[in-house]
Design a protein that fits this description.
- By secondary structure, this protein is α/β, with parallel strands linked by helices.
- Helix content is 43%, strand content 24%.
- The chain has a 5-stranded mixed sheet with strand order 3-2-1-6-7, with helices on both faces.
- A hairpin with a 4-residue loop joins strand 2 and strand 3.
- Helix 2 crosses helix 3, helix 4 crosses helix 9 and helix 7 runs parallel beside helix 8.
- The structure holds adenosine-5'-triphosphate and magnesium ion.
- The site of adenosine-5'-triphosphate (ATP) has 21 residues, from helix 5 and helix 6.
Length: 279
C-alpha cells in the first residue's frame, strides 16, 4: 500500500527529530505549518515545511485532558508555551499560528477551549480539525476507517469520498490497559504505566491486556455493523503493541493496518491541516 508506505516515511522522519531540540534546515521564504495536539496523555507540537515534511517536533507527557476536555487550563497553556519556545529556539523564528484538534462530536465552548489554549500560549488559532480527519490526512484515506486508540478513548471514523460519514468515541483506551496491568501485578498505576511500555515485557503484557484489546475491537465491530468499510487503519499510542493490529484483524475478520509510530499520526495531521504561515 503506497499511502501507508508514504505515511511511514513521514512518521519515521518525525520520530528522528522529535524531542531532540533540533530543527531541520528550513527555507525561510517557503512558509511553515504548526499543529498542537492536546491529548489525554501527552501534548505534541509539530512544525512542518511547505512540503509537509517535519522540521521540528516536541512533546511532553501531561494529564491536563480528560475525555477530550481540558481539565487543567493553566497547565495546558504552560506546556504549549514551553514547546513553542523550544521550537522557536531551534528554528530561529517565532511561531505565529497553530492548528488544534478536537475529538469528533465536540461542540460549543469545549471547542473554543482548544483555540483558547493555543491563543493563551501566544499563537493565533488557525484551523480546528477533528482528530480522525487529521489522522486521515496523514494516511491519505479517501475511503476507509481510522481507529484511534489513545489514552482515554477508542475513536472510530469512517470515510467515504474523503469525508467522515460515521464517527464515534468510546471511553476505552490505553489507560484501561494500565489499570488491568496494575490489578494483575498488584502494583501502582504509575508502575503499571512504565511496565506497559517496556519492550522486553511486551509479549507478557499483551497477553494480560488482550481482553481490553478485544473490547476495543468489539466497539469497532459495533460501528462496522452499521457501515462496513475497508481498509481499516489503527493509530494512537495504545496501538503500539506489535500484536495489536493482528488481534484486531482476527476479531473483525478483515485486515487492519498500522503505521509506524502510531502515536504521532494525529499530531502530524493537525499540522498538515494548517495554513502556511510566513515568518
Ligand atoms: N510503547 C507503548 N506500549 C503500549 N502503550 C503505549 C506505549 N506508548 C504509549 N502507550 C499508550 O498510549 C496511550 C497514549 O496514546 P496517544 O498519545 O495516542 O494518546 P493521546 O492523544 O494523548 O490521548 P487521547 O487521544 O485519548 O486524548 C497511553 O495510554 C500510553 O500508555
Ligand atoms: Mg490522541
Amino acid at each position: 500500500m503506497d499511502s501507508l508506505k508514504q505515511a511511514n516515511q513521514l512518521l519515521t522522519a518525525f520520530s528522528k527529530i522529535v524531542n531532540t531540540d533540533k530543527a531541520k534546515p528550513y527555507k525561510k521564504e517557503q512558509g511553515y505549518k504548526v499543529g498542537v495536539d492536546l491529548g489525554t496523555s501527552s501534548i505534541v507540537l509539530v512544525v512542518l515545511n511547505q512540503q509537509d515534511s517535519p522540521i521540528f517536533g516536541a512533546f511532553e507527557y501531561a494529564d491536563v485532558i480528560q475525555d477530550g476536555l481540558v481539565v487543567n487550563y493553566q497547565k495546558s497553556v504552560e506546556i504549549v508555551q514551553r514547546l513553542k519556545e523550544k521550537a522557536e529556539i531551534a528554528l530561529g523564528f517565532s511561531l505565529k499560528m497553530a492548528s488544534g484538534a478536537i475529538p469528533p462530536g465536540t461542540v460549543g465552548n469545549n471547542k473554543r477551549v482548544v483555540a483558547n489554549v493555543i491563543e493563551s500560549a501566544g499563537m493565533e488559532a488557525d484551523n480546528l480539525i477533528d482528530e480522525p480527519t487529521a489522522a486521515a490526512l496523514v494516511l491519505n484515506i479517501h475511503k476507509g476507517g481510522v481507529i484511534d486508540v489513545g489514552g482515554g478513548t477508542t475513536g472510530i471514523s469512517i470515510f467515504e469520498e474523503g469525508m467522515p460519514v460515521l464517527v464515534s468515541d468510546e471511553p476505552t483506551g490505553g489507560t484501561h490497559m494500565t489499570l488491568v496491568l496494575a490489578g494483575y501485578y498488584k502494583i501502582s498505576i504509575e508502575e503499571a504505566e512504565l511496565r506497559k511500555r517496556e519492550s522486553k515485557k511486551e509479549q507478557e503484557n499483551f497477553a494480560i491486556v488482550k481482553p481490553v484489546v478485544q473490547r476495543m475491537a468489539a466497539i469497532t465491530a459495533n460501528i462496522l455493523a452499521k457501515h462496513s468499510i475497508d481498509p481499516l487503519y489503527v493509530v494512537g499510542g495504545a496501538a503500539h503493541f506489535s500484536e495489536f493490529e493482528k488481534e484486531f484483524g482476527r476479531y473483525l475478520k478483515q485486515p487492519v493496518y498500522k503505521p509506524v509510530y502510531p502515536q504521532f499520526v494525529t499530531p502530524i495531521g493537525i499540522a498538515m491541516s494548517s495554513q502556511l504561515s510566513k515568518e
